[in-house]
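Recall the central idea of this unit: under ordinary conditions, the amino acid sequence of a chain determines the structure it adopts. In this exercise we apply that idea directly, starting from the sequence alone.
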Amino acid sequence: MTRAVVVTIFAVTAVATLAIVGIDSVVRPDTGPFALAATLEEHLLLIGIAAAVVAAGLALGWCTWGARLRLLAVVLVVVGIVRLGDEWYSATPAAATERGGQPLTVLSWNVEVGSKTGQEVADGIRPIDADVVALQELTTVVATVLDSDPELRARYPYRILEPREPAIGMGLLSRYPLVREGYLDLPPVLSAGLLLPDGRRIEVMDVHAYPPVITTVGPVPVALDTTTRDDHLAVIRGLADAAPDGRLVLIAGDLNASPFESGYRILASDGLADAHETAGTGPGFTWRPDPIGSLGLGMLRIDHVLTGATLRPTAVDENCSVRGDHCRLIVDLAVDAPKAGG
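Accordingly, the structure predicted from this sequence is:
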């Protein structure tokens, strides 16, 4: 393969990446190949940047297109910084922590039906010092183990477990009193009021939107249809908007939506902040395909914690050490003190 062919391949890859990201940013499609590309935008941008840099390097001092290829590389780097900057880097956690407020740690985990035993789920919860645990895909077998584990019962005296088969069960464990508000099975949403020591009430929603429909050619995904998933996100948004105080809303769970998809902003907007965007550093990936479920890393960020203005994220972490397709998402919050007279 000649140098000209190699440069052309890398240059075309870079240009295609720029075009895909541009279309997804402007049109924001919810069906088709570009909807699928939106879920992989982070990966595509990194591939495009690398391709542009390689093409420019190979053309250096050799081809008349060198200057244009260097400009293409610069453009892709700038686009990458703009698109990934807020997502991969947060400069505010230290300042947010210094402001004080009651600490509250949340663990959200889709335990994936059939991927682990009830004891493995219990052992996955045990080492994380969370105040509230939100579980998705909770089955009767796993719920029975959690309900009978003496250490977890002592740590979490308040619990609402709604096991369902095969994959719509939900569960909440808490150090603080919980008031059950309801369970919705389409989409799965377990709602409860969490009573703080100062008498205020946080509206907690443990949620699980259904995944998009994937079209494949053989084993290769080629398109996505997010219609049903986005309808579920709209239902969850409606429940959040109906809360008595939108500043004290906490949504945790598996949204099956990456932050670059159009449907994600149904929730992460208008008073609901994404904890990772506020206080996380790095890609924050929480999901991986089953074949690499034991490798200790994620590939997409589809598990999220969203909060109202009174619940300030101060730290975000992902733990992918337990087998299964979802990692554990741990978010530290600071609950602002009530304002005088309010």
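The longest helix spans residues 3-26.
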